Amino acid sequence: MSRRPYRLVRVLSAALAAGTLLTTTGCSDDGDTDGSRVSDVAASQVAGKRQTPSPTATLTTDGARAALITEADIEDDWTQVKDTEAENWHDSLLIGQVDVADFLTAKAQAADCRRLLGSLFDDDLLGKPSGASELRGFEQGESRLLYQVASYEPTGLRDSLNWMASLPETCDQFTATDHGEQRTVQVVETSLPDVGDAREGLRVTVRGTTGGTDAVLTLDVAAVRVGDDAITVTAGGLDGGESDSVGQAVRSGTQRLKDVLAGKTPTPNPSEFD
User: Fold this and answer.
1) Predicted confidence (pLDDT) per residue in 239-259, tens digit
2) How many helices (H) and strands (E) in the chain?
3) What's CA 153's distance to the chain center, in Å?
């Protein structure tokens, strides 16, 4: 899948894809996060807590595709789109120059926030995969959901999750400017189901204008590590975030990936009772 600098998150609505400007992202979480979010850093501080070792099988291209979620995994009215369509989603509100004046340690913090916007645009939140990588897109009204399964270099994957964990503080709120248009970006920590070896959840909110009209882009973002592999989910749009669907995708998707790595066939029609 081709990439280009600062390609916007593919969760942008059709109107934004047509040519609206990208802005920075922000995340928010109205729920209780205690005990629900475990990064590699946090996990190392929990004494005596042991998780079942993840499968160590190498993820193949066929396996990554089998591990992708389906419409049944996220319920609601999501409809799967063609892979070529999902690969070309663009969210112009994610484009912009980060204002370093917003930060106490301007250079380092601004770099992290630029990285956030760029990785959302390029669909490489956890960095470039080192092995198999597959993605699938879904639409529901003006919202979009992009789901990816990929293999990563172990150290880089852990570093990326720790970086995500730092963003609610580092990039709490900042300004991005594109062609004179200013956008306010907020990043907030969100809770995720207690699955995988480590996980991070964010809500990124971008407030700006599109076509001369005020607009708010809300994206719920999640990443879950399973060994040296991971799933990432980005969902939302101009109609608001999609935290419930992201939670369902994370829960079902993590199990699908574990099944594939264990040499099993994922359940074709999952349910909450499986």
Assistant:
1) 888 999 999 999 999 999 999
2) 8, 9
3) 18
